[in-house]
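Q: Give me the 3D complex with adenosine-5'-diphosphate.
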Amino acid sequence: MKILVINCGSSSLKYQLFDMENESVSAKGLVDRIGIDGSNITHRKTGAEPFTITTPIKDHKVAMKLVLEALLDKEHGVLKSLDEISAAGHRIVSGGDLYKESVLVDDKVMDGLRQCIPLAPLHNPGHIMGIEAIQHALPKLPNVTVFDTAFHQTMPDYAYMYGLPWEFYETHRVRRYGAHGTSHHFVALRTAEILGKPLSELKMVTCHLGNGSSISAVKNGKCIDTSMGLTPLAGVLMGTRTGDMDPACVPFVQNITKYSADEMNNFMNKKSGLLGISGVSSDLRDVEEAAHKGNERAQLAINMLEYGISKYIGAYTVAMGGLDVIVFTAGIGENSAETREGVCKKLEFMGVKIDSEKNRVRGKEAIVSTDDSKVKVLVVPTNEELMIARETKRIVFGN
Ligand code: ADP
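A: Here is the predicted complex, encoded as structure tokens.
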């Protein structure tokens, strides 16, 4: 069985074709600059060299046609007929509070996605265009939407509500929704498998640390709290995003500078975080390098990052009434031994003992705590596309 996983943005379309017999990727690629000068498609059959075609691609329908042609291509393709594709799975950034799990697409779901546009104005319109494009090309193909927000829908109300006047929630749906849910769910499932314990018996903190970072409390397999909020700005310090701060900083600065709401949003999302504090880069590798050379602001950015992560783990230990496992994933979580060690050292009093030797791992599954550590610490590379493919198979064909 073959499942096509699609991650569509407003001007890009990423895809992976999975062979679900062994959950391997047969081919993948990216259509870039849709509707913009210089649009192109890069396609790669697994094990072969990638090839790129630069050609005008005016919209998502043209993009999807090119993807399907690439999959059928005699030299670079992996399919004889499009009938071999059994279903498509779509990554959706926000399902708001409408979707608690993945769903089969019908007209009602398309309406729901449109209702969620205010919650993800930069993402959901692109997702909708992607679904419409494949519906146009392959009208009989079942489509499944897999939401980044769905895994967090089990949070209790006291964890997702903000202390704002009630009308803000009722009228404008202002509350915590969280992000990266597909990744948190994937690593939580995989961690239970690695440890050989039922997920339903584990108290876990999953740390997805990339350019954007979020931390989740996963108690007995259910998310009970997460660090991102209404938008992906909240939580720990990120590459270019502030993470948590006193919201009154915004009107305070605006009253003095007269910056508009959009300008402030841009500062908080694009110019803050590791970049804003260090003045060096949004990439932790560069910040670590600068800190090693004695750059004090770079060191401060690292201290803020590690302090913030450890505080969340502490808080979520309280939220869950205990802690069995800490899981690190995504670019920083999988690769930065320094960050993992810096965070875990602050949690020693809670029975977290990291093994510096085992922790010298990069991008691979590993248990990096000592054998006698009360709390297990794991590195688990995330795979959101595989999770979407599995969800699509489950929804369309059952387990
Ligand atoms: P995104 O959130 O965009 O998907 P990733 O999960 O790919 O991002 O994470 C990207 C971040 O991972 C980079 O900004 C970089 O800081 C960090 N990273 C990648 N490799 C390393 C490494 N070897 N050491 C430290 N940080 C790393």
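A quick observation: The longest helix spans residues 296-320.
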